[in-house]
Specification:
five-stranded mixed beta sheet; 8 strands
């Protein structure tokens, strides 16, 4: 019994010990599993941490690379901006003054087409607009100042011309010949001053400052010649090829006279002192044309281009573009050409110089009244060459062209230099003008004797000839009377041109 009880107790103890061992083993197994899981968790966290560390290192490298690129881009933009300030903007300002100066592009080709180039281009464009607008404002203000000053000078010069004309009238006798010669010299000098003042004012936007009635075109041509210094020695002609009483409307008379005078002065200035400048007036299908030829130094291609641009009157001209000292002649002509619809063309003349052609449209021309006549200084029309058998001509009356009677001992002049005889009837005048474009005056006037015709007589008569090749000369008394009439008419025109009040303000400015 005791042994069985002991055996039972031993078995119970073994069972209890086995149960404890199994429990401890289960706990140890659980701990191992938990430890393994913890180790696996730690391993995963370490791996994630390593991955984050790798990513962080990679991002740091990328950030450093971006920082270096940003710094390099900043240095590049900084250098390009300095180049813009130091090179491109000064070149742009020089280009605005002298178009032949080239404005450089971006310094670094890598910036071409980028926002930096576009922004710099926008800066240059804005600067260009600002400089041009400010330059135009300053130039307009300067032109206004010049116009105001010129108006006063022109008024005083016109008054001086009026005083000189009064002196010429009071001392016109033979006993005052020396004084009259001096006064005429002063009058010519004052006329040159008026022309220079006039051209400067017109170039700055002023009006010619003088007004005229409807005037014969040949008279305007003679008046333009008289405004050129030393015209007696330097200008040959003028040649009148008009076959009708063509005049210029009052609104454009002074402008055409001014334009012709400036073209003549330019031709004389650029010709040697011994070379002649020729001038002729022709009738065209579209109006009339004044042709001026010189044998001077001529123009090169650049000068022709500049002259064409200025004479067209279609391009705005600023004072700074006229040089130093300003050369205002072509600019002033361009303003008148654009205002009245005229045209001035330049080309190389047959003498190697320059040929200037002033084309006057029909709208500015009128047919002068039948009772009027040009001044005594106006040239008579040049007769057309005598037709030959080889020339195809229309039938005309035999009396249309007759040689002038000359003294038997005088050799007749060539046909191309003879003066035309007065028209003898309506049929003859119709034959001479039927191929010409009609002038604005619609009603045909009755026929009158040709203006400026002189009496023809024998060698001892009033229109007798001398040893000058058969040309008819006037008597000294007739010349004196005509010159007196011319002076009186000129004085009246100058008085009408002066403003009614005694203030220093020129009309139209």
């Amino acid at each position: 019994m005791i042994g069985a009880a002991v055996l039972a107790l031993v078995l119970v103890g073994v069972l209890i010990l086995h149960m404890r061992v199994r429990r401890d083993l289960a706990q140890a197994r659980d701990q191992v599993v938990r430890a393994r899981q913890a180790q696996e968790h730690l391993t995963g966290e370490s791996s994630a941490r390593d991955q984050r560390l790798v990513r962080a290192e990679r991002q740091a490298k990328e950030s450093a690379e971006l920082l270096r690129e940003a710094r390099a881009q900043q240095d590049l933009v900084h250098a390009e901006t300095e180049y813009l300030i130091s090179k491109r903007i000064p070149a742009l300002l020089s280009h605005l003054r002298a178009p032949h100066v080239i404005v450089p592009g971006v310094q670094n080709p890598a910036l071409a087409g980028t926002n930096v180039e576009r922004l710099h281009r926008a800066i240059l464009d804005t600067l260009t607009r600002g400089v041009r607008e400010e330059g135009e404002r300053i130039d307009e203000a300067a032109q206004a100042v010049v116009r105001g000053a010129i108006s006063r000078v022109q008024t005083q010069a016109l008054r001086a011309q009026d005083l000189l004309a009064d002196v010429q009238r009071r001392y016109s006798g033979d006993e005052h010949t020396a004084l009259l010669r001096e006064v005429l010299g002063l009058d010519m000098f004052n006329e040159l001053i008026i022309r220079r003042v006039q051209v400067t004012g017109i170039a700055c936007g002023a009006t010619p400052g003088l007004s005229r009635d409807d005037t014969y075109l040949v008279d305007l041509m003679v008046g333009a010649i008289s405004r050129v210094e030393n015209f007696e020695q330097r200008i040959e002609g003028p040649a009148n090829h008009l076959r009708r009483r063509i005049g210029v409307a009052a609104r454009a008379a002074e402008s055409i006279l001014f334009t012709t005078a400036e073209l003549l002065a330019n031709a004389v200035h650029h010709s040697h002192g011994t070379l002649k400048v020729t001038i002729a007036v022709h009738e065209t299908n579209n109006g009339a044309a004044i042709v001026i030829d010189d044998a001077g130094v001529g123009l090169n291609e650049e000068q022709y281009a500049r002259a064409t641009r200025l004479l067209s009157g279609t391009h705005p001209v600023r004072l700074v573009d006229l040089g130093n000292p300003p050369r205002t002649g072509w600019a002033a002509i361009g303003r008148q050409v654009a205002h009245y619809g005229m045209q001035v063309t330049l080309k190389k003349s047959a003498f190697g110089g320059v040929q200037a052609v002033l084309s006057i449209p029909t709208a500015l021309l009128v047919e002068m009244p039948e009772g009027s006549r040009p001044s005594v200084l106006a040239p008579e029309p040049v007769r057309a060459p005598v037709p030959t058998a080889a020339t195809v001509i229309r039938s005309e009356p035999a009396a249309a062209f007759r040689p002038e009677p000359v003294a038997p001992s005088v050799r007749p002049e060539p046909a191309e230099t003879r003066r035309p005889e007065p028209a003898t009837g309506p049929r003859q005048r119709h034959d001479q003008t039927e191929d010409l474009a009609p002038l604005p005056q619609r009603r045909r006037q009755p026929t009158r004797a040709a203006s400026g015709s002189r009496p023809t007589g024998g060698p001892g008569g009033p229109g007798g000839s001398d040893d000058s090749g058969g040309r008819l000369l006037t008597t000294p008394e007739e010349a004196q009377k005509r010159w007196g009439d011319f002076q009186v008419g000129a004085e009246a025109g100058r008085r009408e041109a002066l403003p009614p009040q005694r203030h220093d303000i020129t009309e139209g400015i």
